[in-house]
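Why should sequence recovery work at all? Because a backbone constrains its sequence more than one might expect. Tight turns favour small or flexible residues, buried strands favour hydrophobic ones, and helices have their own preferences. The token representation captures these environments compactly. In the example below, the structure is given first.
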């Protein structure tokens, strides 16, 4: 069965949220504020908040 290009793109996007290193993010999260994390990883404050929520659910 063939898959469409959109389905492949979605499956690749699920592998990593925001394309960042989660181990580095989790270590930095303990020491830095949300603003510093957003600047370091090139994310918005809302993205940092969402990422923190997703990590605490896991």
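From this structural description, the recovered sequence reads:
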């Amino acid at each position: 069965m063939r898959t469409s290009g959109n389905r492949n793109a979605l499956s690749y996007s699920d592998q990593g949220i925001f394309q960042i290193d989660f181990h580095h993010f989790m270590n930095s999260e303990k020491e830095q504020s949300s603003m510093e994390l957003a600047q370091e990883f090139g994310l918005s404050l809302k993205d940092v908040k969402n990422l923190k929520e997703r990590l605490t659910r896991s």
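A few observations help interpret the result. Residues 18-57 form one domain.
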